[in-house]
Design goal:
139 residues; Aminopeptidase; two-stranded antiparallel sheet; globular; binds coenzyme A
Length: 139
Amino acid sequence: MTTTEFKRYLRLAVPEYARGHVRAGDFDPKKALAKAKAEYAELLPKGVATPGHYLYTIALAENDKAIGMLWFDFRFRLDKAQRGKGLGREALGMLEQQAKILGAVSVGLHVFGDNAAARALYEKCGFRYSSMHMTKDLY
Ligand SMILES: CC(C)(COP(=O)(O)OP(=O)(O)OC[C@H]1O[C@@H](n2cnc3c(N)ncnc32)[C@H](O)[C@@H]1OP(=O)(O)O)[C@@H](O)C(=O)NCCC(=O)NCCS
């Protein structure tokens, strides 16, 4: 999803979500809209670039016309006692299978640079670096 597409999505989705709350009798329209805006901002603080969240525009193959969107997030954590037994690799394999069934042609993820275990796992599973953030402490 491009930033422009994301803005369009928010213009549609935020009021829709707020109307849901109004229909459910949770809030009055003004409060519901403010709450919907705040929730989206909290969930996606960096918009389409929010780590761990994957937003796609669904487009028709014949003319590339945008007809919808898909948003999923990918979180991955094993209990400490269960790590290093191959379970993470297995779970990742299952995710890839599910993504293929859903029609995905690739999967992407964000990992912090200091997370050696996760990076090693992803590299072993065939993930390659598609973009990198670099930071230098000035003090
Ligand atoms: C990342 C995580 C899911 C990996 O799961 P796991 O079950 O421990 O990993 P696996 O046992 O399947 O290991 C697969 C490969 O990853 C690498 N790896 C796993 N743990 C490692 C560690 N502590 N140090 C270095 N490499 C490691 C190895 O290359 C390993 O392959 P090998 O067994 O052939 O040596 C797990 O460590 C975890 O829950 N970490 C905390 C949360 C987290 O960091 N999530 C990822 C967010 S992006």
